[in-house]
What does this fold into?
Amino acid sequence: MIPALRDFASAVVHRWRGSLQIRVAATTLVLSAIVSVLLGVVLLQQIRNGLVDGKTRAALAQLDFGLQHAADQFNAVERPDPATLRSTASTIVGDLGPRGSGAPTYGVVLVTNPGGESVNAPAADTVGAIPVALRSVVTREGREAWTYSKVSDGSGGFSPALAVGGPVPAGSASYQLYYLFPLAQEQQTLALVERTMLFAGAALVLLLVAIAAIVTRQVVGPVRYAAATAERLAAGRLRDRMAVRGEDDLASLATSFNRMAQTVETQISQLRELSRVQRRFVADVSHELRTPITTIRMAADVLHDSRDDLPPELARSSELLQTQLDRFEALLSDLLEISRHDAGAAALELDAVDLGALTTRVVEGAQPIAERRQSRVELELPGDAVIVDVDPRRIERVLRNLVANAIEHGAGKPVEVRVAGGPGGVAVSVRDHGAGLRPGEAALVFGRFWRADPARARSSGGTGLGLSIALEDTRLHGGWLQAWGQPGVGCVFRLTLPWRVGEEITESPLPLDPTDDVEAPAPWSDVTTEPADA
Amino acid sequence: MARGRVLVVDDDPALAEMLGIVLRTEGFEPSFVADGDRALSAFRSTKPDLVLLDLMLPGTDGLDVCRQIRSESGTPIVMLTARGDTVDVVLGLECGADDYIIKPFKPKELIARMRARLRRNDAQGAETLTIGDVTIDVAGHVVARDGEPIALTPLEFDLLAALARKPGHVFTREQLLEHVWGYRHAADTRLVNVHVQRLRAKIEHDPERPVLVVTVRGVGYKAGPP
It folds into this structure.
């Protein structure tokens, strides 16, 4: 199809689908046009039949009269010699033929049967206009008959005509008398009726369409108004209401709509208030707790610094105080962070950064833990810089978490970190070769305070909130954070982000399942926390 | 230590006392003020080399105190804040704080940051640098355009000097943090962003369209042509 045509067609389809009014008007147009056409055809048929019937009856009556006259004349002939008969025939035709000046209104033809001679009035060759079929019927069956024919209208064309004929009931010879009545008058009448009906029908159809459009508008108008109001509500103008006019169905629609809007507004403002209180609480807790902890922390540090001068049990106590304060601080800041997410108070601070450089920094920062765990972190970067718009602090925190987790659970085997950018988005995957995850656990790892092995829960640092916060941070970017794991093989965590926040990720440039290109995915590799619930 | 006077503006007596213990241990001379209204007069009378400023204060808000001090002095200000939220931190930096530290902090971290702020990169000789129509007299700590001096804080001066020493060279935010703030490990790159903005507001003809300190998208900043 030509593009312009296709555009036009799709525009038409769009309007058709989009407007009830257009649909109703168009349907009315089509249906009323069909009805008008059918009605017109039937009416025309009836009128034509009526006109022709009258004409036929009159013609047959005239034929009867003519036949009687001809029979009387022929029977009055005393010596039936051809010359006399011929002159009689001429007389009869002259008697029966049209009188007066001007265009003849009909024609008469008298045919002598054996000879086939014909006498005409007016003296045109009207005998040619008598259909052969009519003549044969009259000749063979010897009765009156009629049919339609055509006569020359004198200007080269033909006009319809009615031909009637019958045998003259005279004893001496066999004659047939035919009349030809032109139907021009009737045709003109019919044409006039046709034109009138066409105009009337078209006017009626247009009128109906206009009525349908007006009526639909009365219904559609308030519906569109309701839709516009709903749009404004959806856009956040919660105080907008519909105007209620009258007491009809549409007024009750407006009333119900307003009641709904009222409920929604109340609910939302309640939730807003709750969220505001929650946020306020978080901020207060944050401040109120942090100041004393800072003092405690400093005091503990002073004690810790002078632990060499303290008796052993006090020195050990100060060490415990120190490490547990670290843990407490980490837990507190994670709790505050997650409650900020819960309250919807977490906001993105976007900046264009090279994801490769950011990941490199994270991997370098993780070296001390890696050395402690006698592990190695291998980094695979793409050739080009991967510049993305992200909140660098949050993404760095997510990656720090993933890398630290991988080292923590990697059983001393190398951790592989890959960065890639593709048309569908950018991704970082972190793979370890540790104990892996049991079937079903990949969906649980992002749960709060979830631990792979409850027995060794406390030994391995971490607050148990790291992955939950990572997931929230990822969601804030509109990204995916997914886990894959197989017992004895290890885990893969993959972070996929759009190039810009707000864009859709179509596809991650890195595989989640590392066995993907080797064999079919393991049956539980589909366990992901995907954007479905994000 | 020559530069050792520290003004601590904090309303929490326990924390203030503890800060005093730690600061004295480290060789500083701390003085204290507990509310915002008296902070400025205390600053004028003690003439500290560095201010430790809690953002949440009774009376005059910490941000206002920060603005007041900055309006009459370039003395380094380190904010103490209980909230790591972006808005709070950026607001504080925009009000003129040179650095911030989020409670709870380790004393060593605080001392390291204070030392970094007190240590000046002024040992680099008596060169004169130019970017665009701005001249930088490194030894005299004077920045001028057409002979008119432009008032910069020491931190802003160091930032501009670091960029101007290698015109056209692109510095990452991390490199600037190390050069100017003296941080070895990744700190908050927002420090760089906000201070670059403050610097631009003072030296650029049109801060919206900077030509002297130019952003290199996804990498960092560079100085414009000399």
Summary: The mean pLDDT of chain B is 83. The radius of gyration of chain B is 17 Å. The first strand of chain B starts at residue 5 and ends at 9.
